[in-house]
Description:
Bound molecules: zinc ion
Helix content: 55-70%
Distance between the termini: 70 Å
Amino acid sequence: MTIFLLIVAFVINLVLCFKFASIAEEKGHEPKGYFWWCFFLGTAGYIMVAALPDRGYYARSMKNINGDSGKKPTTDLAYEERLLNNGGWKCPSCQKVNPESVTTCRCGMPKC
Ligand SMILES: [Zn+2]
């Protein structure tokens, strides 16, 4: 009976680990690493994934820009170049390159 319960708990943990790994991936983080965090830490690992910052916007915009390959650019320079080629704009005040959807730069300068 104990063995049966252990197997059931193991399978439930495994399913949860896969789910939390996919949540981490949706948030723009490495899923494999978070799978193992959840696998070994259990509830603490789940909380960790829940508390992850959502980098999904960055990951999603990379997917769109790179033709859905999901491949991230190797440098910030390549990222900025891709943003500019896809309707992005460069702030005249601080020189930060912003995506097309951003209407006001981080420094407060509006898109012109
Ligand atoms: Zn700016």
